[in-house]
Design goal:
19 helices; 427 residues; mainly alpha; 72% helix; single chain
Length: 427
């Protein structure tokens, strides 16, 4: 039986978040054009929005979307081919082409190495695209993120991201990038961009930039799955294992990051008994593989080593903050960025006192890329509160709340601001 329209629309949104990447990947295999594949997937979504409020959500909504999109893909192939050549000359060729496309599509479902989603990642990360376009397009097509969510992840304007996505799809269509996983030297050359994309997808799941949910575990799981496949494809690449290690350890905390009502629980307040020990063991093993391969540690291996410090601490008080601060220092030298410096400031504060951390945070105040970054005033507010400067801390936390687009995070920041107000009045 069909539910209310609002319930159905929420169900459709949830299904789309889960199924859209697989849908687009399979359609790309069929039509050979990521832009057209996304259009076909969107058409199927529109059809669901029209039908499901009346008929109810199907037992297998992903299969329903795929069947609808495949029918439209076949119609599109027929139309495009008939425009190019006379109908009588190609009836047999058309049938063969369609059968071949569907056969290839069905075969791909049972092909663990030639994973369609992974092929889609490598298409989106092709060197014919600029780096920003690769990352934005993959987040859009694989992560199912909105243009606004991607913009927030990169701290750039939304129209900028929209233009990158449009240009990337147009370039891929014009250059006819093959739907395949690269091998050999080409694989190595494109790996860094792929790793960046996979990690950004994971991060959106680990700490959602917008919406009502603090975490989106399905995105973390998808990123982990892609990372593990990459580790099989490139076993001699330390940074692949470093990224997998980082994601495994971070994912181990997902259950502990939210309370019974979905409210955020910060790292030092988490019940560590709820951390997934299997994921921690897998992450530490992946980190050991990365380090065993030798060479100077890369950015993901360094971040995994930081995550490992938290994972090994039985209590928050046992955390080795001086080592974490040193690792962030190494990361800042390898891949300098204001966000890394902000994280280093937190570690310095925990290791050597809030005054030292606040000094580093204040030095970041003029960074243009951090002007709308809510974590800068959030961190500053925490440090001011620890120093007993409650009125200043309240103002910073309220500013952070005004900048975040995540409803759960906003509530947490306002609660902390209210605590500062109470402390100020009590003092």
């Amino acid at each position: 039986m069909a539910g209310t329209a609002s319930e159905t629309h929420r169900a459709i949104d949830a299904v789309w978040r889960i199924e859209s990447a697989k849908l687009i990947a399979r359609l790309t295999r069929m039509v050979g054009d990521v832009g057209l594949a996304e259009d076909l997937a969107q058409d199927a979504l529109v059809a669901a929005l029209e039908k499901w409020p009346q008929t109810g959500v199907p037992d297998n909504p992903g299969a329903w979307l795929m069947a609808t999109a495949k029918r439209r893909a076949i119609d599109a192939l027929r139309r495009s081919t008939l425009v190019e050549r006379k109908h009588g000359e190609l009836a047999a060729e058309l049938d063969e082409r369609l059968e071949g496309a569907e056969a290839a599509l069905d075969a791909a479902l049972d092909d663990p190495v030639g994973d369609d989603l992974l092929r889609l990642v490598f298409i989106c990360c092709h060197p014919v695209l600029p780096t920003e376009g690769r990352v934005a397009l993959t987040l859009r097509l694989l992560g199912g993120l909105t243009t606004e969510e991607i913009a927030r992840a990169f701290l750039v304007p939304t129209p900028t991201v929209a233009q990158r996505i449009v240009r990337a799809k147009r370039t891929l269509a014009e250059t006819r990038v093959p739907f395949e996983v690269p091998r050999g030297e080409e694989l190595e050359a494109r790996l860094a961009s792929v790793l960046e994309v996979v990690y950004l997808i994971f991060n959106e799941g680990y700490s959602a930039t917008a919406g009502d949910a603090w975490v989106r575990p399905a995105l973390c799981e998808e990123a982990l799955r892609l990372g593990r496949i990459l580790a099989e494809l490139a076993p001699a690449e330390p940074e692949v294992h470093g990224l997998v290690a980082l994601m495994e350890i971070q994912a181990s905390r997902l259950r502990a990051r939210v309370g019974p009502g979905g409210e955020p629980i910060l790292l030092l307040d988490q019940d560590r008994a709820r951390w997934d020990q299997l994921l921690i063991r897998r992450g530490l093993a992946a980190l050991e593989r990365a380090e065993r391969l030798g060479g100077p540690p890369g950015r993901y291996t360094l971040q995994a080593a930081i995550a490992a410090c938290h994972a090994r601490a039985r209590t928050a008080e046992e955390t080795d903050w001086p080592r974490i601060a040193a690792l962030y220092g190494a990361l800042a030298r390898l891949a300098p960025s204001p966000v890394v410096e902000l994280n280093r400031a937190v570690a310095i504060a925990m290791a050597y006192g809030p005054a030292q951390g606040l000094e580093l945070v204040d030095a970041l105040a003029g960074e243009k890329s951090l002007r709308s970054y809510h974590l800068l005033p959030s961190v500053r507010g925490d440090l001011l509160a620890k120093l007993g400067r409650y009125d200043e801390a309240r103002a910073e936390l309220e500013r952070a709340a005004s900048l975040t687009r995540n409803a759960r995070e906003r509530a947490l920041l306002l609660e902390r601001a209210a605590e500062c107000a109470r402390e100020s009045e009590g003092g």
